[in-house]
């Protein structure tokens, strides 16, 4: 299985590296970070740079794509090289996936029309402009398109995908390998559970 | 607050990027990836390269250090440049922390003698050779030293730390910003909950 993760300026690191770590631990799987051109791409904080080892043109037909989100998504909505790659890769993928605001890029590539999809809670409604039906769930599957909620949801999405792409025991083995037995210190990771007023604080952290 | 995360060959990406994303979203916080020399460092799968933007010598007195683990830890146990930096930085840190097998590096630096600590379940007992008492918990605090269990536990550790370093509302805002409302697809992320035989499968995934 060949997985490609596109990087673009001001992506959120965990959006990409969460699913990456899950899928890279999967036997007989290769993950390639791609970008418009091979080389360094810096994240939304300006403090972490990942290396894309291939260009979009180098990886035209991956089995799976995982499109991360981040503050840079809004500018990337007019990045025709990225959108064109997503659109063309999607024709041959087994799964086309996104994390966080990455679903807006799937939408801008024309892939979400008439489908249910999710995204980061702060911009969930924006999916409607691409003809999608926003769904406030952690992982949303619509045929071969799978979208995840914000940032950390990519880990859950990748494990869910892996169980389908391979089998449940392989996904469970990876979950145990990365000791994914989460114990968040607070019950506030979703707008559904967060105390009143916390969303405003969270938005000020993101921007 | 200045956080430094040392990178060494064959670290596990999520060990570093989980806590990084939490702490980099924290207001008035800078995170710097450091290494023996500034430059690219490649992870345990050989497919993801992060850029260290500073050398150990460039960042002698960070407020917090987060030492990631990975298959490369065993070789790093004899990396005197890394161990010396950990040892000296620790003299001035507010918190000295690790994720996964990174705790073995704290041990090799001489910091865990007589203390409780945790690590990845697969090598938890190895902490004894450094005089530490292994504890099978997700996050273990011993004064200013905080160790986390395997890979994904660094996210819980960083949020716990943040609540202490700042305040609970700031930590909650970051938890909501990264939408950390985990919904793992299986109940098997710890040896305590995993079905019989899964640990062997997980070990074959790691190595």
TrEMBL record, chains A, B:
Entry annotated with the keyword Lyase: yes
Domain (DJ-1/PfpI): residue spans on this chain: 2-163
Secretion signal span: none
Keywords: Lyase
InterPro entries per the UniProt record, alphabetical: Class_I_gatase-like (IPR029062), DJ-1/PfpI (IPR002818), INH-QAR (IPR052158)
Its EC number(s): 4.2.1.-
GO MF annotation list: lyase activity
Keyword Cell membrane: no
Record's protein name: DJ-1/PfpI family protein
